[in-house]
Amino acid sequence: QVQLVESGGGLVQPGGSLRLSCAAKGSILVIYDMGWYRQAPGNQRDLVASITIGGKTNYADSVQGRFTISRDNNRKTVYLQMDSLKPEDTAVYYCNARILETNYRSGTYWGQGTQVTVSS
Question: What is the pLDDT of residues 86-104, one digit of tens each?
Fold first, then answer.
């Protein structure tokens, strides 16, 4: 069974930085696209950033130039470096990955979510 385990959320002041991590665990053969989404109260879950297996990245306009997504394929981990944080970045952040398991079943998996709060 595959799990995505997130860490790194917390409370930070405006202008500060946080780094989120998401490690994939289980019987994994290949991890294709990986990404981060966020959901604020009363809002839908939106894409923040994504990265392909080859390293091609995509960002929401609202975070372009402030957030950086990266991945370590050996560690089966995706990261989100968040700089110049704003109060409007406050949300629960979820990682997401499209995975092929060793039994050749594929699926899209979600992490449990980690709270990011930007406030003075």
Answer: 999 999 999 999 999 999 9
